Amino acid sequence: MKTAANKTLTALFVSIVMAAAFTACSTFPHRPADQAVRLRVEAFMTAKVNKDWTKAYSFFDSSYQKTITEQQFSKKIEKIEFKTFTIESITVAADGKQATVKVKSDVITEGFDFKDNLETQNWIKQGWKWYLHVPPKDAKEFFK
C-alpha cells in the first residue's frame, strides 16, 4: 500500500514539475533576432549619448574586452560627443548568430560637428545576448 501511494505521489510531483517547466518555457521572452539586436543597439547608442562609458563598454564582445581595457576605451571615446542616432537597417545572417547594423549619428569631436555620420556595426550572438564585434586589428588601430 505504501509503495502504491509513493508511486502516485511521485507521479503527481513529476507532473507538477513538468507543467511548471513547460509554463516557464512558454513565458520566456523570445524575440526575433532583429528585434533583440535592435534593443541592444538602442541601449548601446543611448549609453554613448548619455556618456555612460562603463555601460557602453559592456556591449562589446569578449575578444574586444580582452584587447582593450575599459579605461582605454573610456579615455578615447570621451572625446566624442554623441548627440542623436537613428538605426537605418538591421540585417541578420541566415545562421542567426551575426548581424550587420547601419546607424546614423550626429557627433561632435575636436570642434567638428558631423551630421548623419553612417557607421556599420557588426554584432555577434554570444550565449543569449548580442555583442558588438570589433575585430582585434581594428580595435588596436582605434587606439594608436
What can be said about this structure in brief?
By secondary structure, this protein is an alpha+beta fold. Helices cover 48% and strands 31% of the residues.
How would you describe the overall organization of this protein?
The chain has 144 residues and is α+β, with helices and mostly antiparallel strands. The protein has two domains: 30 residues; 112 residues, Nuclear Transport Factor 2, Chain: A. The protein contains six helices and four strands. Strands 1-2-3-4 form a four-stranded antiparallel beta sheet. The longest helix has 26 residues. The protein is elongated. The N and C termini lie far apart (79 Å).
Which key phrases capture this entry?
144 residues, alpha+beta, Nuclear Transport Factor 2, Chain: A, 4-stranded antiparallel sheet, 48% helix
Query: Distance N terminus to C terminus?
Result: 79 Å
Tally the beta strands: 4
Average pLDDT taken over every residue: 84
What is the number of helices? Answer: 6
SSE topology:
Layout: H1 2-27, H2 33-49, H3 53-57, H4 62-67, H5 70-77, E1 80-92, E2 98-109, E3 112-126, E4 129-133, H6 136-142
Antiparallel strand pairs: 1-2, 2-3, 3-4
